[in-house]
């Protein structure tokens, strides 16, 4: 006999609760990974500054990919990487990496490149929990990875086009 009142009145609710628990687990694990990468260097020593961290090194490797879009700084790349965990973390990562001084955003972006950055951020792949759901629905990791690549490529192409048009207009 089922004593769960939610499942009794709405059998699909139990599946949603399990999905939320699974999503939370993925987001929590991803957050721990980001925390680790942000606080340790390659020698597994605690860093005193974020620019010495593994996350900064990874961001520096990825940064040239975003230079044609107008935002090739490692901190911006790092924020986009953390955005894979949750889109909300893009802004908070930038805030943390700038030491809480949001006025320093002007050193990373012009008003126009900030607009291009927003376009890219809105179009690239959603958070890890959504990717996990895509994987579950499509049945394979390969299919989910394909979706992620298509979304990232689309975001890059659209942002590149907007940036190019803006440059031609002198923005």
Quick structural overview:
With 171 residues, the chain is mostly helical. The chain is built from 9 helices and no strands.
Question: Could you please describe the fold and organization of this structure?
Answer:
The chain has 171 residues and is mainly alpha-helical. The chain contains nine helices and no strands. The chain has helices spanning 5-9, 11-39, 54-66, 74-82, 89-97, 105-108, 111-123, 128-138, 141-168. Helix 2 (11-39) crosses helix 8. It starts with a helix and ends with a helix. The model has no long low-confidence stretch (mean pLDDT 85).
Estimate the strand proportion: under 5%
| Major sheet attributes | none
Give the averaged pLDDT, no decimals: 85
Structure classification: mainly alpha
User: Ranges with pLDDT <50 over ≥5 residues?
Assistant: none
SSE string: HHHHHHHHH
Indicate the overall shape: globular
Key phrases:
171 residues, mainly alpha, 9 helices, 71% helix
Outline the fold blueprint.
Layout: H1 5-9, H2 11-39, H3 54-66, H4 74-82, H5 89-97, H6 105-108, H7 111-123, H8 128-138, H9 141-168
Helix pairs in contact: 2-8, 3-4, 4-5, 7-9, 8-9
